[in-house]
Amino acid sequence: MTTAVPGPDGLPRCAWALGSEEMLAYHDDEWGFPVHDDRRLFEKVCLEGFQSGLSWLTILRKRPAFREAFADFDMEVVARFDASDVDRLLADTRIIRHRGKIEAAINNAGRALELVAEQGSLASYLWGFEPSAAELGEPQSLTTSPASVALSKDLKRRGWKFVGPTTMFALMQAMGLVNDHALGCVTREQVAQARARLPRPA
């Protein structure tokens, strides 16, 4: 069982959040709080893909540059990126210069627009994969789940890239589709309350 540990202010938090000020702020203000804005959801999908094989702190520190380089993750703009944009991004030392991940983000923007046209919003689609409490184990005990496997499989069927089950479970944690804060973490109850208040997208 994963339990919380005291933070710098004495309040209990997830242990992973205590390595830096950036991670602590991300943990306290963002991680696990429910997101239903399509642009921010698309950003999370892209950044979780870029994070594959790297630390989240690396991505978090580069996030402002990613937002600038990828037009603040406007799906319509990114979907129109061409070979010259790929070259521009590969030359941008502020971001992760991985051709496969860059091309995946551009491809996924187009696939996201198709999904929005079909489902009404990216949020309504992703929240449709919200798992039941019975499906999940103890907090922070899983790296995949039946829901993340199903989400990954369906996105791949739709032509998305860099959306494996582990990456999609990380997305589910980050966007509040699950509340995976450690037991006793001061933020866990805040996330639970925010999830309870959120009207699920139709």
TrEMBL record:
One of its GO terms (biological process) is base-excision repair. Zn(2+) binds at C14, H27, H181, C185. InterPro entries: Adenine_glyco (IPR005019), DNA-3mA_glycosylase (IPR052891), DNA_glycosylase (IPR011257). Pfam families: Adenine_glyco (PF03352). The keyword Hydrolase does not apply. The keyword Zinc applies. It comes from the Bacteria. This is DNA-3-methyladenine glycosylase I. It comes from Nocardioides faecalis.
